[in-house]
Design a protein that fits this description.
The protein is α+β, with helices and mostly antiparallel strands and 151 residues long. It is built from two helices and nine strands, in the order βββββββααββ. The strands form two sheets. It has a six-stranded antiparallel beta sheet with strand order 6-5-4-3-7-8, with no helix packed on it.
Length: 151
């Protein structure tokens, strides 16, 4: 049985990490590492076989999966650009002057699509910065590893 790490916010459990889970972290050396937890033992987390002491973790990043943030965000931004392109094409086709190609509604629609797409792209990951609110705790589940039969 492997040990586990518990991410806590002000003393309440937020997430529990164990072997086999995907994990993304920033170290105190300002390097990002992504991968799968291959083992947790001796106060260390092994990410794709590379050990990191749990005190070397600065930020944990968790990918949100309820929506398809990347695809939806890009599609919304493309739709916003499409509204602007469509206004220009229609204006050229009708022979309007450039100042008459767009209405305030078309600018608002394009802006909402582009900003919403950008927000979706930026909210793909939830970041937990360890320090004031968030902390990570190492839990040793089998304290008698060296002596499996204490009796």
């Amino acid at each position: 049985m492997d040990d586990v790490f518990v991410l806590q916010k002000n003393g309440s459990n937020v997430r529990t990490y164990s072997t086999g889970m995907p994990f993304s972290m920033e170290t105190i050396y300002e390097q990002w590492f992504d991968g799968t937890i291959t083992a947790i033992r001796n106060d260390s987390i092994f990410l794709n076989g590379i050990p990191f002491h749990y005190k070397e973790i600065k930020t944990i990043r968790w990918e949100r999966t309820k929506l398809n943030y990347t695809t939806d965000g890009v599609l919304l931004m493309i739709a916003g650009g499409g509204v602007l392109v469509l206004g220009a094409v229609n204006g050229l086709y009708r022979g309007d002057q450039a100042k008459d190609w767009y209405t305030p509604v078309s600018f608002i629609t394009a802006g909402v699509f582009i900003v919403t797409g950008f927000i979706l792209l930026k909210s793909r990951y939830k970041k937990y910065s360890l320090g004031k609110k968030f902390s990570i705790h190492y839990l040793e589940l089998n304290p008698n590893k060296n002596n499996p039969h204490p009796f």
